[in-house]
Amino acid sequence: MINPWPIIESTKGPDMGLFCIRINRCRSPRTGQEHNFYVIDLPNWVQIIPITPDDQIVMIRQYRHGCARIFLELPGGLIDKADLSPEKTARRELLEETGYSAGDLSLLTRIYPQPAVLNNVGLTYLARGVKRIAEPSIDLAEDIEVYLVELQRIPEMIRSGEINHGQTVMALSLYFLLATENPLRFKAGG
User: Fold this and answer.
1) pTM
2) Which residues contact 158 (CB under 8 A, 6 or more apart)?
3) Who wins on pLDDT, 141 or 25?
4) Percent of the chain predicted with pLDDT > 70
5) Which of 63, 101, 133, 140 is most buried by its number of CB atoms within 10 A?
6) Domain residue spans of the chain
7) Distance between CA atoms of 49 and 128, rounded to whole angstroms?
8) Which of 74, 5, 8, 89 is nearest to 43 (CA)?
9) Which residues are CB-contacts of 128 (< 8 A; sequence separation ≥ 6)?
């Protein structure tokens, strides 16, 4: 049986603003030996699968500095300390990035994006019946373009690699898996 590793000592490393690094000295319950592990403290985040009444997914194209390229992805963002709930963050991010407002919003899943080094949680929300009510309000450090995709095109776009943003692929794949298992609950646009 695998057991948790006790933390013997935790030292705060560099603070990079968006994230900081911690060094945890842990003891193996199996061998008793101590080892250092690096953990990136990063805020939790949300992403939204916004579906319009006419079965289109509202997506965004965004330049990502980590890979120095443009990705087609779902809208979302980090949960600010000032946000009252992840759901409010999802509604805010959807409106800011796309100008669309979520009618029905429900939590689809919670994931741990990279538990080997990240300690955060990602929440994916499904928003049905979204409507455009405003112009996007994009941060000065972002370049975002709103892009509507017919729901039925998504699986092929994932297969072909046109959609290859990891969190987006996970969320949309899960959506289609659940929609296949329970078509009435996941009826597009409904």
Assistant:
1) 0.90
2) 164, 169, 172, 173
3) 25
4) 96
5) 101
6) 7-41, 45-181
7) 8
8) 89
9) 51, 103, 104, 188, 189, 190
Residue 165 CB coordination number (10 Å): 18
Tens-place pLDDT, residues 171-189: 999 999 998 887 766 665 4
Distinct helix (H) and strand (E) counts, the chain? 3, 12
| Residues constituting the chain | 190
Name the strand (E) or helix (H) holding 86.
helix 86-98
Query: Regarding the domain delimited by 45-181, which CATH topology (the fold level of the hierarchy) does it fall under?
Result: Nucleoside Triphosphate Pyrophosphohydrolase (3.90.79)
The structure tokens listed for 32 are 């008793």
Torsion, CA 16, CA 44, CA 146, CA 87, rounded to 10: -140
- Comparing CA positions, the residue from 54, 58, 71 lying closest to residue 136 is 58
**Residue tagged 């006790």 (tokens):** 6
Single-letter code of the amino acid located at 42: L
